[in-house]
User: What shape does this take?
Amino acid sequence: MNRGVLYRVGLIAALVVASFVLLAPSLPGVGSSLPEWWGRFVGARRIRLGLDLQGGSHLLFTVELEKAVEMHLDRKVDELRRELREAHVGAVALDREGQFIRLTLASPDRRAEVERVVGERFPSLVLEGGRADQQNTVRLSLHPREVQQLYEYALDQSLETIRNRIDEFGVAEPTIQRQGTREILVQLPGIQEPERAKALIGRTAVLEFRLLADTPQYQGFNADNPAPGTEAMDGVEGDPVTGRTRRLRHLVESQVRMTGESIADARVQLFDQLEGPVVQITLDADGARRFDELTAANTGRHLAIILDGTVYSAPVIQERIPGGRAQITGNFDIKEARDLAIVLRAGALPAPVTLVEERTVGPALGRDSIRKGMVSFAVGGSVVALFIGVYYRFAGFLAVCALALNIVYLLAAMAGFGATLTLPGIAGIVLTLGMAVDANVLICERIREELLLGKGPRAAIDAGYERAWSAILDSNVTTFLSGLILFQFGTGPVKGFAVTLCIGIVTSVFTAVFGTRTAYEYLLSGRRLDRVSV
Assistant: This one.
């Protein structure tokens, strides 16, 4: 027997064995009973079921883009205050009012100098026209082009931040994508804690470091009577004995000394039962330098650590703190501390997000879809196999074997890639079977035509495959390219369809052409085939 034929038979057999090894963790009742070494050898990859098959949460969030502009203007207020101070331009008041920055001058004579500073150092700000009797007031707004760029950035950054949070939360194969001009769609298959996921996604996680207003200049003022340049903020304090928290009011300086943009890492640290878990944050190089300078210049003062407008702790700066490390305490339980660490590592949302739509897909619907899909697949496949077997006889039998092999290879490839199976994915598998049947029909018809011309078995088989190959290649290549385009530009279910379609085309061409041709070669080389039944 030809050694090349044996190698090809061995390759097909080896692929079949490898396929069953990859598929074993995904088989019901088999995956849970596999030995531990199996997982180390094969890995934890398996075919996952999508939201439409195993249930889960469908969440639609809208991004409050206007808040992104307001937060950007708040940062511009601090920068503008510093630039005007360096230019020795006096201002009675400088704050943000909605989508504008309002600056009140001590004298209208300084207006021209303010306009010069803004024009030279803040090109994204536009001076708004004011009334003639208010020449000591300057109103600034963002250029429309800058506003549009902020909107795009807020959407893209919100999408990336939510994706990072969900990845750390541990949801397998989530769908996270933009929808419309300001909405983000999140689908979480098989999630067991939807409320926790919603809280994790929607948390803005804006971290700020400010000083408490506890210096002599603020004496006489309190949280109910804030002084100029201060803000009143709620705080939480835990009782180490009872474990309960109580609300406090803090008077903090309006100036933000540092933000969470400097965070390089955030981890949960476990202490004794009285103190509970805390979140240890590590700052990047620039943040560590600024934190060092901040603590060195304000030794003896209280540093407020503020998350989303709530003061979680306000420790006294005992000494200069080099190294860029700080702690956030708040009488957390371990789950709250872990979620806080996740959002701090993933970064703050550039704008708040609001849940506008929520749907829960029950697993019963998924089981019903799987059952109906399996029944329709079994009935349809059996009818096709019966027809091919009757119509093409022995050649049809080989074609049916190739179809079965195609399904095994396709599912094994999906398991190897850790792909997610959805209802559109099942549709892709069915379409792949149709392509595979078409390829086998082309081969059988070409072989039949060659036999009618009086050729022998080997010559008819060789000519049949040669004549069918060009048509098979053209149809499958064009369909494969269409699948690649769908995968590149599609989202969610469309990608699931494209993945199964592209993988299925490769396996169908392999089994229909290489697999059946190897079977014929094996039979011919052993002189087991003296005529072709087709």
Observations:
- The chain has three domains: 3-44+362-525, 66-147, 203-359.
